[in-house]
Amino acid sequence: MRANFRMQRLYVTDDLAEGLIFEADRDQFNYLANVLRMEEGQEVLLFNGRHGEWKARLQFPSRKKILLEPFEQTRPQPDLPDLHYLFAPLKTGRMEYLIQKAVEMGAGHIQPVMTQHVQGKIHSLDKLEAYAIEAAEQCGILAIPQVETPVKLTELLEDWPHDRRIIYCDEGDAGQNPLPILSEIGEQKHALLVGPEGGFSEEERALLRSLPFVTPIPLGPRILRADTAAVAALAVIQAAIGDWR
Prior knowledge:
It is a single chain. With 245 residues, this protein is of the alpha/beta class. It is 31% helix and 26% strand. It is built from seven helices and twelve strands. Strands 6, 7, 8, 9, 10, 11 and 12 form a seven-stranded parallel β-sheet that branches. Helix 2 runs parallel beside helix 7. The longest helix has 15 residues, at 125-139. It is elongated and about 65 Å long. The two termini are 17 Å apart.
C-alpha cells in the first residue's frame, strides 16, 4: 500500500493503537500548532517504526497542549529492509545528505566505518538517527533503519558474517560496468561499502580483495564524490539484485 502524501506525517515514540491517546511533545506541539497551524479535529498520520501507520485526530485541551488520538491504521508495519549500508563518514554538511539518501534508497542498517583516509567524524548517533527519521517522514517509509556504532574497517571485517556478501565501490577497478559482476552474486544477502573521499588505502584494498565474501565493483568511467557514489551504487544494486526487480 502506497503512502498518502496529502496528509502530514509525524514520527512519534509512543505506542500506536486505537484509543491510545497521548500528548505531543514540545517540538511536535510547535510544529503542529505554530508551523502548520492545525486546529482541533484535524488529522495527521503517525508512525513509530513498530506499529505501522495510523490516522490520528488532534485534540486541544488547552492553548499549550495537544493530544493525539490514533483511530485507524492506514498501513501495517513492514519488515526492515535487508540491505546493509556501510560508509566512511563525511564532513558534517554532507553527512545528512548521505544518511537521507541511504534511507530513501532502501537501506535497513546503517553502519559508519572508520577507514585510514576517513575525513568525517561521528559526533552523535542521535543526529544520524534524526536524519534517518526525517527522511522516513518525508518519503512515507515506516521501517526506521538501525544506526550502528562506528567501527574500524579491520574490526568490521574480522567479525563479518560470511553469509552476507560485501559489495564495495573500488575506484581503482579497471572496468566500468558493475552489472555483470552483480548478476553473478544473485539473491544472497548483501551489504554495500562506500569508502571516504580519499578512497581506500592500498592496504585496505588489498585486504578487501583478499576476502572471499567481498566483491569489488566499478561505477563507470567518471570520478564520483563519495556521496554521489553511494547513491549511484545503491541504485545499481537495488536495480540488479535488490527490491527494484
